[in-house]
Design goal:
The chain is an all-beta fold. It has strands spanning 18-25, 28-35, 40-44, 50-57, 59-64, 67-72, 76-80, 85-88, 95-102. A hairpin with a 2-residue loop joins strand 5 (59-64) and strand 6 (67-72). It starts with 17 loop residues before the first strand and ends in an 11-residue tail after the last strand.
Length: 113
C-alpha cells in the first residue's frame, strides 16, 4: 500500500505543463498534470490502455478525437487509448488533472461485482 498527497506533488512551471508520477503498478501508471492558464497538452494517444482523467482543480478544454468539450473541477473523462486527446487550460487559474493509464485483463473483468 502507498499513500501520496496531491499537495506534496503540486508543482507548476511557467515554461510548460508539469507531470508528477504518483504510482506505477502492474503495467499501469497514475500521475498528475499541472497547467497554468494558456498551457496545453499536445494531441496524443496511449494505445493498449484505458485512460481516466479527473479534473482536480480548474477548468479547460478537452479535445477527444477532434471534438472540443469544456471541463471543470470534478469532471471525470474516460476513453480508450486509441482516442486522440489533448487539453488546453483556457481558464484564468491553475488546472490539475489526475490521470490513470491502466490495462484491463479482458472485457468481462469487473462486470459481475
Amino acid at each position: 500500500m502507498s499513500i501520496t498527497s496531491l499537495q506534496d506533488v503540486k508543482e507548476f512551471s511557467t515554461e510548460r505543463f508539469t507531470k508528477r508520477v504518483l504510482f506505477r503498478h502492474d503495467g499501469g501508471v497514475t500521475f498528475v498534470l499541472h497547467f497554468l492558464p494558456g498551457q496545453k497538452l499536445p494531441v496524443h494517444k496511449h494505445p493498449g490502455t484505458d485512460v481516466i482523467l479527473l479534473v482536480v482543480e480548474g477548468t479547460g478544454t478537452m479535445i477527444l478525437d477532434g471534438v472540443e468539450q469544456e471541463v471543470k473541477q470534478e469532471d471525470v473523462i474516460c476513453c480508450g487509448g486509441e482516442t486522440e486527446f489533448a487539453f488546453h487550460n483556457t481558464g484564468n487559474s491553475e488546472t490539475r488533472l489526475f490521470v490513470t493509464l491502466n490495462k484491463v485483463p479482458n472485457e468481462s473483468y469487473g462486470q459481475n461485482i
